Inverse folding.
């Protein structure tokens, strides 16, 4: 639970402080947000499955965001940034859908 | 061997993504907790988890906020550019006005200096200004009008049914050949350096974009010009444009036309009138500057001795 509380505190702090994002990081934001969503849905599903773990949640969240940004960076350097971004979004999107379906089954029993 | 191979072995990646979206770490952690001899993680580790979570939450929130509001930066850039355009346009207008004032001053001083010394030179300068298209002139002449064909039901005009730069070039050249002494297209005075050409669908006269209907005013002896113009290629081209493409054309005699001056022309070439007469400033040039606009407002050009063919247009057909 400590990770979730920390996350909420971080969101509040981010909204309150509103720091400006450096221009060099701008291209990685969309993919990073999608990766964060994937980690969030994974955590929620794990919670409903009864196997949630703070450390796993935080590590998967962090690695998701970092790896997604790294892939975009690598793609930009190789000149295939948009294609790689599409691939990352497709994979993460499928995972989000599957996790959301599992959550739905938990919540509505259907 | 083949029986043990799963049917969807070639799609293991998709299966992995579709069937097992949850991070396996959760299951492992859960198993570890359930295993005998499990101890709670040390306090330091929990603090690290908390700090990392706070950082991740803040980063995500900031990313979402900055992604949701990309407009202000674009808008600011646009406003800046618009402001720059307005500023520069105003600057150009101010410079043009000051240029005009300085030209008037130069012309006045020139007339003042020459009035006592060489009245004949002033007359020559004035006639030179008329030929160069610098001063505004009035007089009788011909007015040739061309208008694009009316739009069809869908509001479009076919490109062929619009007046082209070549049509205007032909009309202007034929008017010069018919004895015109000064010509203006839609109020743009033609000089010996004026080009009539097209840029996209617009016709540029002296780099000023014009739109139809087009009015070509030519000052000269109306009767003689009309007779001679009827025999030029432009007359037959006008008839062809009218009959084939529906472009409305008209040639009319006007008793009084007023043509604006083309403004100051920069001095490109100058030579002394008479090398021995040093008292006369060597200001006589092929393209003299603005002289006596005020008086030329009422001046009627009656010279009818030119008749020389002048070509206009950078890219004649």
């Amino acid at each position: 639970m400590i990770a979730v509380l920390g996350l909420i505190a971080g969101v509040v702090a981010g909204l309150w402080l509103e720091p400006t994002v450096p221009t060099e990081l701008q291209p990685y934001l969309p993919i990073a947000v999608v990766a964060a969503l994937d980690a969030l849905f994974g955590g929620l599903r794990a919670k409903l499955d009864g196997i949630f773990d703070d450390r796993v949640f935080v590590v998967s969240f962090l690695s998701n965001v970092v790896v997604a940004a790294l892939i975009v960076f690598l793609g930009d350097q190789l000149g295939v940034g948009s294609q790689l971004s599409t691939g990352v979004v497709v994979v993460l999107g499928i995972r989000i859908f599957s996790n959301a379906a599992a959550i739905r089954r938990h919540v509505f029993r259907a | 061997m083949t029986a043990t191979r799963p049917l969807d072995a070639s799609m293991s990646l998709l299966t992995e993504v579709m069937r097992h979206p949850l991070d396996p770490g959760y299951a492992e952690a859960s198993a570890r907790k359930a295993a005998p001899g499990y101890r709670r993680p040390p306090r330091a580790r929990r603090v690290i988890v908390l700090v990392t979570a706070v950082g991740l939450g803040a980063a995500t929130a900031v990313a979402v906020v900055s992604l949701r509001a990309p407009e202000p930066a674009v808008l600011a850039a646009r406003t800046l550019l618009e402001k720059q355009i307005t500023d520069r346009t105003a600057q150009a207008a101010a410079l043009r006005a000051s240029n005009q004032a300085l030209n008037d001053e130069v012309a006045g001083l020139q007339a003042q200096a020459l009035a006592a010394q060489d009245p004949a030179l002033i007359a020559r300068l004035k006639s030179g200004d008329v030929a160069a298209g610098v001063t505004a002139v009035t007089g009788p002449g011909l007015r040739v009008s061309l208008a694009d064909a009316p739009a069809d039901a869908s509001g479009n005009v076919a490109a062929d049914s619009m007046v082209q730069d070549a049509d205007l070039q032909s009309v202007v050249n034929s008017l010069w050949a018919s004895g015109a002494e000064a010509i203006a297209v839609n109020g743009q005075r033609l000089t010996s350096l004026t080009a009539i050409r097209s840029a996209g669908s617009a016709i540029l006269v002296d780099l000023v974009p014009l739109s139809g209907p087009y009015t070509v005013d030519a000052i000269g002896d109306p009767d003689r010009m009309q007779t001679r113009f009827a025999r030029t290629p432009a007359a037959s081209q006008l008839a062809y444009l009218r009959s084939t493409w529906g472009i409305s054309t008209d040639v009319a005699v006007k008793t009084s036309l007023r043509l604006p001056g083309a403004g100051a022309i920069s001095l490109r070439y100058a030579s002394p009138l008479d090398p021995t007469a040093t008292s006369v400033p060597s200001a006589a040039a092929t393209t003299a500057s603005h002289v006596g606009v005020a008086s030329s407002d009422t001046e009627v050009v009656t010279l009818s001795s030119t008749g020389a063919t002048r070509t206009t247009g950078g890219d004649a057909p």
